[in-house]
Design a protein that fits this description.
transmembrane, two-stranded antiparallel ribbon, single chain, alpha+beta, 7 helices, DUF2510, cell membrane, disordered C terminus, 9% strand, membrane, three-stranded antiparallel β-sheet
């Protein structure tokens, strides 16, 4: 997945933002509360040239022996690193600067280092979960509960608005159902076709599906555009945010997000093709790593996170992205 260039919260240091150019971090960091400039940061001034090495004395007298690495004053002690990391030096894990070197991101892009976490293989042990904009990802269980709440609300709206059309559709199919039930009770085996539904059945089915899709769109898209939350998401404590920045989705992005999940409703009569597409979309976060995006999230470039207003603040000493 390609991440759009922009300013993102550093997953290693949650107190600063860095600029991601599409391949790696560049430029100097800024405080996380500061307003980032438009576009990439200005180029950093080049480091001053190192002073020339002292010349050896011309006489035959031996000069002072150079200090061996790791023995001079101010040299960091070597030894085992943190628990779970490699040994042999004071900088055992990715993202930590070596002595005399800038922090990763100051200049050249670092492969495998992205704004939403580490690439597998770049972190000792299990890589941490990404935290888009410093927020933990929403679990699949919370997303499922929120979606079921939303479906219940949309179903109740359909019962009010679509009830009369559904009753008319049942009346059109009543002769077909009655004849089928008579044959089942009589255990009658025959090749005679069942009576066809009324002429208005097809038109009523189209009207019902159009109204159902319109009610779903009217319920979800405006709420997602303004705050990234439907009523179900608000009750569960999750919300959708763009990958580019922690800001409202906007109507266009919210509509693209809904289209992937909601428009297949119109394909339900086509051998349940619409239902199969919606089921695939609903299950897709289980197989997407590491961002847990559904197909409609990928279409709109969004991600579902826990709402910071419903989540208790965690200890800053906990490494960002770690999970219990």
């Amino acid at each position: 997945m390609s991440i759009a260039p922009g300013w993102y919260v550093d997953p290693v240091d949650q107190g600063v933002r860095r600029y991601w150019d599409g391949e790696g971090w560049i430029g100097a960091p800024i405080p996380v509360d500061a307003t980032p400039p438009d576009g990439p940061p200005p180029a950093e001034p080049s480091a001053p040239a190192s002073p020339p090495a002292p010349s050896r004395p011309s006489s035959g007298a031996p000069g002072p022996e150079p200090a061996s690495p790791g023995t001079g004053p101010g040299t960091p002690p070597t030894g085992p690193g943190p628990v779970g990391g490699p040994t042999g030096g004071p900088y055992p894990y990715p993202g930590q600067a070596q002595p005399g070197q800038p922090h990763p991101g100051h200049g050249q892009p670092q492969p495998g280092y992205g704004p939403h976490g580490w690439t597998p293989g770049m972190w000792p042990g299990r890589p941490p979960e990404p935290r888009p904009h410093g927020l933990p990802l929403a679990g699949y269980g919370a997303r499922l509960v929120a979606r079921l709440i939303d479906f219940a609300i949309v179903f109740a709206l359909n019962a009010v608005v679509n009830g009369w059309f559904v009753w008319r559709l049942v009346r059109e199919f009543e002769p077909t159902f009655a004849e089928w039930w008579r044959r089942v009770q009589a255990r009658e085996v025959t090749d005679d076709p069942l009576p066809q539904p009324g002429q208005q059945a097809e038109g009523l089915l189209i009207v019902i599906l159009l109204i159902a899709a319109a009610l779903w769109l009217a319920y979800e898209v405006p709420a997602m555009a303004s705050g990234g939350q439907t009523l179900g998401k608000r009750l569960v404590g999750i919300r959708a945010v763009p990958l580019a920045a922690d800001e409202p989705l906007g109507f266009g992005r919210a509509l693209r997000r809904w289209n992937t999940l909601g428009l297949p409703t119109l394909l339900w009569p086509c051998f349940c093709l619409g239902f199969a597409l919606q089921l695939l979309d609903a299950l897709s976060p289980l197989f997407d790593h590491p961002m847990r995006q559904a197909l409609h999230d990928k279409r709109a470039q969004t991600v579902v996170v826990q709402d910071r207003t419903r989540t208790a603040p965690k200890d800053r000493s906990e490494p960002p992205g770690d999970t219990p």
